[in-house]
Amino acid sequence: MVTYDGKYKIIRIKELKNGLVKFFEDTVSISDEPNEILSKILVNKGDVIFALTGDPVSKQNANSWVGRVSLYTHDIPAYLNQRTCKIIQCNNVVPQYVYYYFRQYENLYSLASKATGSASQANISTKILEDTEILLPSLSVQKKMVAILASLDNKIALNRRINDNLKSTAA
């Protein structure tokens, strides 16, 4: 049963914001425990999620484009909703490397440009994602790049929290 206070949040396209999954007051959830069917759409910390529907590249805001990618950073698992997908582990690919790859404007633009649909709503399929070729260095280089970029992201997040605390203290 869908509710607002269930154990597992449902990740819809609207929860994919600026590279992260963000939950809101109106984020729906369910209490159903993972089973054989639900485990296929279960999302865990560190998973990389794509929006399969969104704005076409003709719109100005790249943060709303189809194909935008987000990292799941929450400790509690969640479930995917329609028109979202996650990267499944595969050999010689660090999922977070793919996240950082598609966070680059040029790579997101290239992916979103493959979308079909109307001027107001674009769609990509998991097949398009699967067939998209990316620059893939060795596994050790991918891991090093992810470590460096994740460290920078963590420092940025910490600085934002410090700034927010300073603003609230000054008010």
From TrEMBL:
Coiled coil: none annotated. One of its GO terms (molecular function) is DNA binding. It comes from the Bacteria. Keywords: DNA-binding, Restriction system. SUPFAM superfamilies: DNA methylase specificity domain. GO terms for biological process: DNA restriction-modification system. Residues 5-167 form the Type I restriction modification DNA specificity domain. The keyword Membrane does not apply. PANTHER family: TYPE I RESTRICTION ENZYME MJAVIII SPECIFICITY SUBUNIT, TYPE-1 RESTRICTION ENZYME ECOKI SPECIFICITY PROTEIN. Belongs to the type-I restriction system S methylase family. This is Type I restriction modification DNA specificity domain-containing protein. It comes from Phocaeicola massiliensis B84634 = Timone 84634 = DSM 17679 = JCM 13223.
